[in-house]
Amino acid sequence: MIRLFAALGIVCAALFIAALLVGPAQIGPVEGLRALVLGGEGPAPLVMREIRLPRALLAVMIGLSLGLSGAAMQGYLRNPLAEPGLIGISGSAALGAVVAIHTGLSAAWAYGLPISALAGALAGVALVIALAGPRGSSLTLILAGIAISAMAAALTSLVLNLSSNPFAANEIVFWMMGSLADRSMMHVGLALPLMVVGWAMLLPLGRGLDALTLGEDAAASMGVRLTRMRLVLVIGTACVVGAATAVAGAIGFVGLVVPHILRPLVGARPSRLLWASALGGAAMVLAADLAVRLILPERDLKLGVLTALVGAPLFLHLIYKTRRELP
Amino acid sequence: MTLLALDDLAVTLRGRDIFAGVSARIEAGEFVGLIGPNGAGKTTMMRAALGLVAARGDSSLLHYRPTERARRVAWMPQARDIAWPVTVEALVALGRVPHLPTGRPLAAHDRVHVDAALSAMGLDGMRHRTATRLSGGEQARVLIARALAQDTPLLMADEPIAGLDPAHQIATMQVFASLARDGRAVIASLHDLGLAARHCTRLMLLGEGGLVADGPPGDVLTPDNLARVFHVNAWFERTPHGPVFQPLEVIE
Fold it and tell me: Is the pTM of the predicted complex or chain greater than 0.95?
């Protein structure tokens, strides 16, 4: 087990360094790292510290968040097809961002788009808690999430539909694809505190998720407070997914596929999967963000497009395997 | 020592009275068989005693915080839920969760309890198998072992021997009886009245919206109770092989 975590850690570290060294500006590896650490005059420190570092940091933070919340969501719902977007947070955050672009708030104020997206996420989480009720089963949570996602998607379409400005519509469409290009330390500073809160809420859920392997009744009899756990899960997921969507747009399939790939390697234990999936998510987003820069560097391939392109076939494979295992 | 005290316990679900007026004290050393026809409220009574379903009246277990309660009573639900393909050993080790300080892995004495539970249910050879790939009866034994590993004074199990082969049914009843002899108590809902009559020290008969009879098997499994509650007649004798109970015919 320690070997797996060490391997994931090494992969993350290697990808992080690679992410710092790849970009359109021709900077040698030694020169780049020296500029990053020591600073100094000229364009190299600027590129390293203001462009590549925030991008690599965001990839790690967002990957960690999506992998962790995906593992927690699957563990809580005891369903390998669950994902963090299921409870409607990413949809409502995207709606907030789209409204900011449409109204021009994002152009007028640098913080406008992410703040508006966070407001959308907050509205989404408040709605999902109100709809699913404090007690209710995991099924009501899923249904509430589906309803909110559908509502947010419809309102997003309405904004696009009514948008008289083709440039705004264009911007909305590209933003929704999800990307880490041209992000700054401002985005890191905005997302990090929320994500840290979310990580601190989700990581300690491991033991309760382990107990839930035996079903809700047995878990409750073993001292797991399910009502509290569900609230922590929803708010923790809202923090990390809301923050991730606010700074990078919708990046799908990471929270679905990473826990699925890593589950056999941790003996299917939900508590171990939380940590493994967090590291695996960081590695996957770092790798995907490297790939979009290497495959079509001049065409600005969107990160969310790539994760979906890789994730969807894996998802099909998952459905195919689940179908074979069913009687 | 009283391990469970029920005082005038009653449950109403969706406007329907499941049962009412159940009062009982379960003492250390008792192996209680909870019997009754389908829908009599056996599961609901145990869940109400554990605080898993809202009830009127009182159960002594409701006075503990959830983590403290989990060290006093283990619960094996009827649904054989195993959500993930974990190993048998890992699943049984979940019984130790209520005893572990936050964030601490299993200690040596936790392993002792896990090993003892695996041995008691005859699972030594299966500890590294994947629990979800076992047969239904084997899964039931793994889940009983999980409850045993919780190492609580009181064990409550909902139809623990349903789906087990005869040898494992008898072995499980003997494990429960030996727990009771060691000064613990076991409450198990059962449909096999023959096994209940042979192994339990006490039977509680639920039916007609309440507790019909409560006492030693011979006092509970009377022709009158069987006819009224189960609508069957039966042959029940004390033989050189111990008490033998066999239901015979349905009474119209």
Answer: no
